[in-house]
């Protein structure tokens, strides 16, 4: 279900099929899949230098800005600026939809 929501939201941002798959996979990896926190944003970030890490930081920055770490934000911009920009737009849309 989370992956389907990710694909729908990603398709609104870009028409590139590979980028849509990349965004939705990163989005799905940011959430707990089992246990009492199933379906909630993971407490710890995914492995550094992965798409999931970039998406997790974008979601964390949008939903919990007081917990954001400056180095993570800077490093995301250095890795892949296009993907980081799409992740930030994705997180902003998710935040607006939840409010």
Task: Record the SSE blueprint.
Elements: H1 2-13, H2 17-29, H3 51-63, H4 70-79, H5 81-98
Helix pairs in contact: 1-2, 2-3, 3-5
Which radius of gyration do the C-alpha atoms yield? Answer: 12 Å
Tell me the helix content. 55-70%
Low-confidence stretches: none
Total number of helical segments? Answer: 5
Strand count: 0
Task: Give the count of structural domains.
Answer: 1
Give the termini distance in whole angstroms.
Answer: 20 Å
Query: Given the C-alpha coordinates, what overall shape results?
Result: globular
Please report which band the strand proportion falls in: under 5%, 5-15%, 15-25%, 25-35%, 35-45% or over 45%.
under 5%
Q: For the residues shown, what is the average pLDDT?
A: 80
What structural class should be given to the helix and strand makeup? mainly alpha
Largest sheet: none
What's the helix-strand series? HHHHH
Can you walk through the features of this model?
By secondary structure, the protein is mostly helical. The chain has one domain (2-98). It is 67% helix and 0% strand. It has five helices and no strands. The chain has helices at residues 2-13, 17-29, 51-63, 70-79, 81-98. Helix 2 packs across helix 3 (51-63). The radius of gyration is 12 Å and the shape is globular. The model has no long low-confidence stretch (mean pLDDT 80).
């Amino acid at each position: 279900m989370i992956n389907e929501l990710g694909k729908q939201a990603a398709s609104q941002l870009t028409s590139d099929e590979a980028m849509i798959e990349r965004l939705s996979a990163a989005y799905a990896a940011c959430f707990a899949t089992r246990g009492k926190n199933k379906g909630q944003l993971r407490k710890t970030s995914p492995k550094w230098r992965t798409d999931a890490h970039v998406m997790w930081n974008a979601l964390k920055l949008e939903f919990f800005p007081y917990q954001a770490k400056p180095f993570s934000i800077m490093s995301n911009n250095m890795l892949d600026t296009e993907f980081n920009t799409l992740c930030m737009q994705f997180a902003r849309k998710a935040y607006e939809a939840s409010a």
